[in-house]
Structures are given as structure tokens and as C-alpha cells.
Amino acid sequence: GKFIRIEFNFAGQIAGANIEWYLLEKPRVTNQSKQERNYHIFYQFMKGADKSIKDKLLIDKGPEGYTFTQRCRQTIQGVDDAAEFEMLVKAMTTTGFRAEEQADLFRIIAAILHLGNVQFQATRNDEAVLREQVAAEKLCHVLGIQLSDFTRALLRPSIKAGKDWVTQSRTLQQVTFSVEALARSMYERMFGALVSRINSAMSRPDGKSTFIGVLDIAGFEILETNSFEQL
Is the pLDDT confidence value at 101 over 90? Predict the structure, then answer.
């Protein structure tokens, strides 16, 4: 949900605005019902971004090729995702987003898509290992991190036990939960940064007199499998 303050000056003209957000539906990033789909930006980016941008971020498939977007609706009747993406880019440019800022946002979107495609399997000792490295290598390239650091943090993280640090192996289920939590956290932080940047662009510290508040309380989704995060 969100609360929007539309601010007016003494002449009754709009002087600025501010957005407060809360209860972002993070589970949608990794799990959707067949009747729904992930957040629109994923589909808009894959269908509308310039090929040079997608090549740089190693996005070479459509929504059906990525785990976080393939198990639900791919399209919405009457909605052109490519056209919506073009409008999004124009809106960000109008709001004052620099090309570098836009690129950083798209980098996070691409990273989440790659993260969903990283596959693991269990050994005989029930320890999780990478099934193959291609998706993980793409993810690490996009984020500018070392593959060894990424796999170590997920598969064999260091845990502090008392005064000592202990390396702990992870099961397949634990790693799956960690990947989903990481994807959701990345999206939430990106979303929060985006709203803060919009607020900064719309802020007009001088000349405000009154405001109108618009409260949008979204109803909780009724999913086939509900999670604690919805409470």
C-alpha cells in the first residue's frame, strides 16, 4: 500500500508530492499463482528494453526462460509490455533519473532473473552444491562479484559461534530459502530506493500550504500457498 501527499501552495497550485510505502508483497517476486504474474517490470524489461541493454546484462530469453516469471501468466490482455516499458523510461527521464541510475535499476532486475535460474542439487550427505555454473556466472558478472564468494556465502557460510567463526554447510532446502529471501530483499531495497529518488525529485521545500492525502490500502492476495510475510 501507499500514502501519497499532494501538496499545494498558497495559490492552490500543486507544489510537490511525497510517497510513503508499506507492506510490499515480496513473495510475488519468487512465487505466483497461475492466474497472476510477477511484478510488471520484469516482463516490460524483457520485452521492451533495447537489445544492447539486455546483451550487456546477459538477458537472452523471454519470461518463459526464467524461473521467477515462467510459472504464471506471461501476458495480460490489452497490455503492451514493450510500450509500457518505453513509457516507464520516459517517465524516469522526465523525473530526472540519470542514465546511470536507470542502468542500476535494470541491473537489479536482471540479477533477480538470473538468481532464479541458479540451480542446486543435494549430495549423498544432503549438502547443497551447484548443479551447473552458467546462471551463477551470469549473476555474478551482472553484479560484479566473484563466483567463489557467491557460492561460499550460499553453500558454506561462516557462522559465529561464541567467539569463533565456524563454516557451516547448507542443505538444498536451506539454500533454496536463502535464494528466495535474497531475491525478495534485492527487489524491496530497489523499490525503496526508487520511491526515495522519486520523492527527492518531487520535493518542494518552500511555498507549501496544505496537502491532500491519498491512502491506498491494497487487499492481501489470496494465494494457493500463503506465507508468513503476508501477515
Answer: yes
CA distance 65 to 141: 19
Compute the CA torsion angle 64, 89, 184, 144 (nearest 10 deg).
90
Total number of residues shown for the chain: 231
Residue 142 CA to residue 134 CA, distance in Å, equals: 12
Opening angle at CA 99, ends 94 and 80, nearest 5: 65
| pLDDT reported for residue 208 | 67
Q: Can you name the residues that pair with 122 across neighbouring β-strands?
A: 128
Q: What's the predicted TM-score (pTM) here?
A: 0.89
Least confident of 71-75, 89-93, 193-197: 71-75
Beta bridge partners of 18: 5
Who's near 75: CB < 8 A, 6+ residues apart? 43, 81
- Please give the backbone phi and psi of residue 62, each rounded to the nearest 5 degrees, phi first: -90, -175
Segments in 124-229 forming alpha helices (H) = 134-143, 147-155, 172-202
24 Cβ contact list (under 8 Å, min separation 6): 188, 191
CA dihedral 73, 53, 65, 182 (to 10 degrees): -80
Mean pLDDT of 123-134: 93
Which H/E stretch holds residue 103?
helix 99-117
pLDDT of 210 over the 90 cut: no
Which of 76, 152, 87, 141 is CA-nearest to residue 115?
141
Please tell me whether residue 64 adopts helix, strand or coil conformation. helix
Q: What average pLDDT does range 79-97 have in this prediction?
A: 96
